[in-house]
Amino acid sequence: MRYLPSDVPAAATGDVAVPPAFLEIGKLNKIYRSERKPIHALQDIDLHIREGEFVCIVGPSGCGKSTLMRCIAGLEPISSGRLALQGKAITEPPDDMGVVFQRDLLLEWRNILDNVLVAAEFHDLDRRQHEARARELLGLFGLSAFLDRYPRELSGGMRQRVSICRAMLLDPQLLLMDEPFGALDPFTRDELNAELQRTWLATKKTVVFITHSITEAVFLGSRVVMMARGPGRVADIVPIEIERPRGLQVRETAEFAAYVARIRDTFRQIGIT
Ligand SMILES: Nc1ncnc2c1ncn2[C@@H]1O[C@H](COP(=O)(O)OP(=O)(O)OP(=O)(O)O)[C@@H](O)[C@H]1O
To answer: ABC transporter domain location, by residue (predicted)?
Structure first.
């Protein structure tokens, strides 16, 4: 197993010319200002994400994970630093991005197919042109038999599958996922972890995935970004070199356990248990 101490861009390690990062976060700071004391939510975040990477962000409550996600999604202005997708500064929600939140935000009065097609309507696109893709995605997630059902008729796991399909409808290059499986029972969460990995291997989208679970982060991630709080910052970045596809049973191997232990140890050393 090989660990890199930090997120060193490849360009810094030699003379070879490399393209700029797909998603570039450089010395990013976010300070929330209100009548009360300003809150330094993110301090000097440096992270270069390559196209096709699956990056998991893990850290304790309040370390700024959701703030970072909202900044990347263009929903929150940054206070200083650089934040760019494919070389273009993010100042508003980019078109080429899909977002999945912990709460599925499905529209209760629309059936499943129509919930997925909302993504096309939102961008003023013809829904008929996207219907085949919506059906295909729902099929990929095992929901072909539920197209005309309503969200209230589905389990939590099925609902979250629908929101992933909606986020993927327009084939975005970047998928942001903020604790998407946090509210699910452990069995459903396992299933969705396996499905998500399968889909990612098939599509090679760039994914930024936030979780509280170290196990989930190691299972899914190509790299795990560890965040600490007070103010929110990157504590370490751990490349996960476990071969893919990873079956769920990989979590019982010594290699997997060593990654989990290393991440837990680092958190413990910085006072986060
Ligand atoms: N809109 C806001 N206005 C002011 N402060 C905020 C706002 N949103 C978040 N914060 C503060 O910024 C810090 C980081 O919050 P954030 O929600 O990003 O953390 P988090 O790691 O996602 O937490 P959790 O895991 O509990 O969701 C916290 O101190 C929080 O109180």
So the answer is: 26-254
